[in-house]
Amino acid sequence: MTRINDFQKYVPVDSAIARAYEEFKGPGPEGAIKHQFFFGQGWSNSRWNREVVSNLVTQVIDQQATFRIPGDCLPSEVIKICLQDHLKQAHASWQLDKPRVHASEKLKVNQRKFKKHRERLDTVNELLKNPRLSTTDRAKWKFAKEVLIKLGTDGQSSEHTDSDLALVTYEPFYRRRIVGQILRELDEETIARKLRNDSLPE
Hints:
This protein is mostly helical. It has two domains: 15-95, no CATH class; 103-199. It is built from six helices and no strands. It has helices at residues 15-22, 47-66, 76-95, 103-128, 135-151, 177-199. It is elongated, with a radius of gyration of 22 Å.
């Protein structure tokens, strides 16, 4: 039987989504993820988790009426304290079987992100130099460049990680919808560019 504080198999919200909300650049906990905790760096006092706790407080109060539970409901502040304590226990449980990432492994991730960011920028700059580029494509690649500059190195995902590095990547907020499609196209152009360069005689 799964215990209420057994979170070892729990999937927290993606760090990029929580970070975007923290920086007022993305939506907060809503819809399917309105009760999903964030367990990344700074989780204990994150804006995301404060909002999740607030959502859960509302749900607890609403459920008393929904299920017609007799008696007065606990004050909101008391429920909040209980949930904050539950969050701490949940994070401790979630961390139990997670591999520790050593400094050398973090360096590998950062190097991959730097390389991806540089390659994407090189590709988009090369595309924008094409005088035969259509107006639509030029606007698209200009937008892609703006996105890359705003995201910076840290905003790149750690996809295509080394086989010895236990990292799991999710679909960050910035890669959804049209932005995601443009970045995928840019990655395809980057691969094609590499193939062209590799085929050139030395």
